[in-house]
Write a structure and sequence with these properties.
Elements (H helix, E strand, L loop, with lengths): L12 H12 L5 H13 L13 H8 L3 H13 L4 H5 L15 H12 L11 H10 L8 H10 L6
Helix pairs in contact: 1-2, 2-3, 2-4, 3-4, 7-8
């Protein structure tokens, strides 16, 4: 298996010190620790290394991962232009997988409905009664009574 010459890892002393700190303290996610170990093994500027960077199979064996993981970490390091923090951290999701049904506008409309006077024949709003009235409104999506309860509970609102 070839070395990662197409994507060399060259760490600065500050980066090397940060990665070593991640390895020594036990307060980091395992994925970060694993990637830090891989980057330290692939470092071409390591002052204590005798000779060239070891083969990827050797690095994989030392880090306890497969060779593909070594390739992916080296590629991530190259893609992030040598930013070690971005390489070892997990990428944040930009958008949620499912669009939320209850937006701020829906929440406001629901609270306004719950604050209004209950229908004739009822003393106060119940969650099921709110559910029936929300189903009749066109501008609010149909919500389950448990969802309505969660929205009201989140805002510390008790139907009166």
């Amino acid at each position: 298996m070839a070395r990662t010459k197409s994507r060399p890892v060259r760490l600065s002393p500050a980066d090397r010190e940060m990665l070593t700190g991640i390895l020594r303290t036990g307060s980091h996610p395992a994925q970060q620790v694993r990637r830090a170990r891989i980057l330290l093994e692939l470092d071409e500027n390591h002052p204590g290394r005798d000779g060239a960077v070891p083969f990827q199979t050797v690095v994989a064996e030392r880090a306890g991962v497969c060779v593909d993981t070594i390739v992916k970490v080296a590629k991530a390091y190259a893609d992030h232009a040598g930013d070690v923090t971005a390489t070892i951290r997990r990428k944040k999701r930009l958008t949620p997988p499912i669009e939320p049904i209850v937006t701020g506008e829906v929440e406001a409309r629901l609270i306004a409905l719950a604050c209004s006077a209950p229908p004739e024949g009822y003393e106060r709003w119940s969650l099921r009664l709110l559910e029936k009235h929300v189903a009749l409104l066109d501008d609010i999506p149909d919500l389950d009574h448990s969802t309505i309860g969660r929205v009201l509970k989140k805002r510390h609102f008790a139907p009166t």
